Amino acid sequence: MYVRVKSAISIKELANQVKLNEQLLVDCNPDIRNNDFIKEDTTICLPDACIDYIPNSLYIEYDDSQEKSQAILTKKPYDSVELERDIEKLTLMYPFINKNVIGYSVLNKPIYELTFGHGKKKIHMNGAFHANEWITTSVIMHWLQDYLKAIVDGKHLGGHSCLELYHDTTLSVVPMVNPDGVDLVLNGLPDTIEYEPALLQMNDLSIDFSQWKANIRGIDLNNQYPAKWEIEKARKRPKAPAPRDYPGDAPLTEPEAVALAELVKNNQFDRVLAFHTQGEEIYWGYLRKEPEEAETIVKEFVKHSGYKAVRDIDSHAGFRDWFVNDWRKAGYTIELGMGENPLPFDQFDDIYRKSKGIFLAALYM
After folding, report:
1. Which of 171, 221, 261, 285 has CA atoms 20 to 30 A from the CA of 53?
2. Residues 107 and 9 reside in one and the same domain
3. Residue 335: active-site member
4. What domain count does the chain have?
5. Which residues form the Peptidase M14 domain (predicted)?
6. pTM exceeds 0.90, yes or no
């Protein structure tokens, strides 16, 4: 929402008038960051929730046709188009969010990252590494909206002030790592015919791609990382591109995997959480290279979710494996829900109820 300041006003006074934290006001309007006052006739961007508090004074004017935005319906399956649409809505409703494109998929679809917060502690979360685990994007988007609303409203979640968490942490979220694969699972064959013959061949000539796990080239993105990759290469049953499990011809050959690797290298996150399905388990150790705090944090995750913590698992070449191996920091793979992938969407409420405490604990621990 955009408003126009009619008379010069201090940042503090404007924040008080519209019932918004002063730091959030500045984060919505980076151009005023180094000023104490906002000049007359300046256009200001505010979260949509502030429309309830626009003062009946000469300080601010706004177009009466602007209506308070409704909450985004996030309890739904997301393909890449729907995700892009809702990310745009989120950034309009909460202008302090930074939207970045960290790379592009094989089919040139953007891979989005959302960042916000001010803390030295840097947390990264991602979902939909695997195409048939698309429900992870829905869960992430649902939690994001709850968290963002609580920040603006000055509310608590799980007994924790979300505004304080905003000041104490910087959060990076990639809701959908594998847009091509998710679209294939949800929508079927892509419009481009370039990959159609290979996709059908890999899928035993079936047009039912609901079990597809890999990216559009048949590479498992979570087997693409240089953490004993050669072990997975040698023992994985697919020896060529396939709907699942093929780790590629070398580490980091796929643009989606590279985008996440570069994001980590450029940001030096303190911890990462990769959301997958299924099993209600949390994998947290890797070759005993994880820091001591990793166990303390995972115990908090277990307390809030009821999930099982698993330290050692005979698996390599995953995103989390690589992060723990190379940075010696805490990394977690959270397996949401129970059953067989793709999980039915009627599990959403149960998944969210059990997992929302994990998202929150990742920030305050």
Report:
1. 171
2. no
3. yes
4. 2
5. 76-363
6. yes
